Amino acid sequence: NAGVTQTPKFRILKIGQSMTLQCTQDMNHNYMYWYRQDPGMGLKLIYYSVGAGITDKGEVPNGYNVSRSTTEDFPLRLELAAPSQTSVYFCASSYSNRGTDTQYFGPGTRLTVL
Amino acid sequence: DAKTTQPPSMDCAEGRAANLPCNHSTISGNEYVYWYRQIHSQGPQYIIHGLKNNETNEMASLIITEDRKSSTLILPHATLRDTAVYYCIVRSGYGNKLVFGAGTILRVKS
To answer: Which of A21, A102, A109 to substitute to test the interface with B, most B CBs within 10 Å?
Structure first.
């Protein structure tokens, strides 16, 4: 199993540009998450999904959109990039939302908006 | 989810046990204690979790006090590769998110 994979690893955007961060998991997990991590800070939840076709907002959803058309994929869309979105983005997945279930994280996408 | 308090940083000699404390005085009965770590620039890695009993796996041991208001993560023989930020997280029995604080920077030195 590859686990959780993310592409691209790095990206530089200009203000106002758009892009999609890709996330794929091969563990047949129902739950998927997007977090962002600003320098020196902990992770904050952007969006999550409990299964194909179902998504919900996390703590910091503004400026982002998500979709979940398949169990494996959970892309994150930035429509109008802003400098405040400069961050490292992590995708994660878990089998369920039970307290005993572990979230597995991808390697991250480092995004810079200039 | 309950809030946690961890020291900002700790040092440990290579080969010695690293004991990382965490206070979670407002933890409720159905909340689990989770530990993750993040090695520089990588995604967080699950270490261990527990409810009220002490737990051990191939990576670490988790000691939870009887009143569950604090816990200690123990890395029995720390190596240089254990240098990372360690996050203590309290999570309810059914919760969709992990709430990450600032964590403890553990520096293992030779």
So the answer is: A102
Q: Which one of A4, A97, A110 has the shortest CB-CB distance to B94? A: A97
Shortest Cα distance from B98 to chain A (angstroms)? 8
pLDDT at position B31: 85
The answer to whether A4 touches A93, Cβ cutoff 8 Å, is yes
Residue of A nearest to B91 (CA): A99
Residues of B in contact with A30 (CB under 8 A): none
| SS3 call for A109 | strand
pLDDT at A101 (0 to 100): 74
pLDDT in tens, B45-55: 999 999 998 99
CB atoms within 10 A of CB B76: 13
pLDDT tens-digit profile of B70-94?
A: 999 999 999 999 999 999 998 865 5
Contacts with B44 from chain A: Cβ below 8 Å: 43, 90, 92, 103, 105
How far apart (Å, rounded) are the C-alpha atoms in residues B77 and B5?
24
Q: What are phi and psi of A71, to 5 degrees?
A: -65, -35
**Which residue, A42, A71, A113, is CA-closest to B1?**
A42
Q: In angstroms, rounded to a whole number, what is the distance separating the alpha carbons of residues B44 and B34?
A: 12
The residue assigned the tokens 């047949």 is: A28
Contact call for residues A27 and A93 (beta carbons, < 8 A): yes
